[in-house]
Every structure is written in structure tokens, then in C-alpha cells.
Amino acid sequence: MKDIIKYLAQRNGAEQDVFVLEEMSELQKELMKHRRGRENRDEIVDECVDVLLTISILLEVYNASEEEIKSLMDFKLNRLRDFIPKKEEI
Fold first, then answer.
1. Which of 11, 51, 64, 70 has the most crowded Cβ, counting Cβ within 10 A?
2. CA distances to 33, 64, 89 from 67, in Å
3. Percentage of the chain surpassing pLDDT 90?
4. pLDDT tens, position by position, 53-67
5. Could you give the CA distance from residue 24 to residue 49 in angstroms, rounded to a whole number?
6. How far apart are CA 42 and CA 40, in angstroms?
7. Gap between the Cα atoms of 87 and 83, Å rounded
8. CA-based nearest residue to 62, from 22, 4, 5
9. Residue 23 Cα distances to 20, 57, 69, 74, angstroms
């Protein structure tokens, strides 16, 4: 999987941001359909995966290391912990 992501990052380069925006737009569309009452769980999951993949490629374009990504995710998750009410603390 990493090899495919690296190849696509090299091939798409600066254009990858456009692909991310397109996939986020498709996810947004499915989420809005769900808000209006449509049962489209599978479509939402499918679009989420597309967004994750295109973001993974974009992170490769910007040479973000796994350690950098993990460190930032840990930091941001710990910061979000402040929003969890004390009675529901994890």
C-alpha cells in the first residue's frame, strides 16, 4: 500500500490537493443526503475511505513522516480530551 501511495504522490504531485477537495465534496454530498433522511451508510463509508486515501497521498506529497503524523494526532486527540465532560472521562 505504501508503494502505491508513494507512486501516486510522485505522479500527482501538486494536483493532489484538487483530488482531496473533490473527494471531500463527494463526502459532504453524502452526509447532506443522510441529514435529509436518506439511508446511505455504505456511501458515506465509501467516501470516507476515498478522503482518507487522497489525504494519505497528499501527506506523502508533503513528505510527512509516520512519526510526525502520529505525534500530531496524539497531541490533537489529547487536546480534544478537554472537551469530554468529566463524568464521561475516558
1. 51
2. 36, 8, 27
3. 86
4. 999 999 999 999 999
5. 10
6. 6
7. 12
8. 5
9. 5, 13, 21, 25
